[in-house]
């Protein structure tokens, strides 16, 4: 299992959660393979990011 990291970090957890929901919704809406696990993580500098496993 290897994590794939989204290329941008966000200032708030809310912004990262919106991206997480969009990734889940777009996969369902457009018929892409849904990632097995999508999560929001916090970097060492205090910003938030999204990572997922295909």
Descriptive labels:
54 residues, three-stranded antiparallel β-sheet, 33% helix, globular
Walkthrough of the structure:
Strand 2 (37-42) and strand 3 form a beta hairpin. The chain has a 3-stranded antiparallel sheet with strand order 1-3-2, covered by helices on one side. Helices cover 33% and strands 26% of the residues. The radius of gyration is 11 Å and the shape is globular. It is α+β, with helices and mostly antiparallel strands.
Strand content: 25-35%
Query: Helix proportion of residues, in percent?
Result: 25-40%
Mean pLDDT: 91
As a whole number of angstroms, the C-alpha radius of gyration is 11 Å
Shape: globular
Order of helices and strands: EHEE
Give the spatial strand order of the biggest sheet.
Answer: 1-3-2
Determine the number of helices (DSSP H or I, runs of at least 4 residues).
1
The largest sheet is: 3 strands, antiparallel
Per DSSP E runs of 2 or more residues, the count of β-strands stands at: 3
Estimated structural class = alpha+beta
What kind of assembly state do the chains in view correspond to? single chain
Q: What is the straight-line distance between the termini? A: 9 Å
- Regions with pLDDT < 50 over 5+ consecutive residues? none
Q: Summarize this, please?
A:
With about 55 residues, the chain is an alpha+beta fold. Helices cover about 35% and strands about 25% of the residues.
